Amino acid sequence: MMDHLYAPWRSPYLTGENAPGCVFCAISQNAKDDIKNHVLFRDAHCFAVMNRYPYTPGHFMLIPHAHQDSPEGLGLELWLHLQKRLYEGVQLLYAFGAQGVNLGFNIKEAGGGHRTPLARAFSPPF
Ligand SMILES: [Zn+2]
Which regions span the lipid bilayer (predicted)? Predict the structure, then answer.
């Protein structure tokens, strides 16, 4: 038998009550709201944003501007660009005292990517 965790504070995120359409595309397309949206970084290809519902303090996500749900949808050049930013993200967490970093992807809906683009999550286990 499989047990499920229930996190009621995540319901608005999952049901989309707070964000019609894709919340990440809305953030991507509104750089003027970066401070309000907790965007840490952005360049021409991707942005990093703090998770509004963090697993741990310091949890943030690296998200391509292109709404794709798999690496092959991005293309190899953009995929490699994200890996460079990934490397920098890990170094940033070390600079803030993380002793280690947990990284994860949700690739396609069956991989947990519920209505979201491909995102790389950084969760320092503080
Ligand atoms: Zn999107």
Answer: none
Are 113 and 106 a contacting pair, CB within 8 Å? yes
pLDDT tens by residue, 30-48: 999 999 999 999 999 999 9
Total structural domains within the chain: 1
Which pLDDT does position 31 carry in this prediction?
Answer: 96
Which domain covers residue 81, as residue numbers? Answer: 22-123
Task: Quote the CA–CA distance of 50 and 47 in Å, as a whole number.
Answer: 10
51 C-alpha to ligand 1 centroid (Å): 15
Return the pLDDT at 106: 77
For the stretch 53-111, pLDDT in tens is: 777 777 888 889 988 888 888 889 998 999 999 899 889 888 888 888 888 877 887 77
Establish if 115 belongs to a structural domain. Answer: yes
| Residue 93 near residue 103, CB atoms below 8 Å | no
- Residues measured by CB to lie within 5 Å of ligand 1, the ion: 22, 24-25, 67, 117
- How far is residue 102 from each of residues 18, 25, 59, 69, measured CA to CA in Å? 27, 24, 9, 20
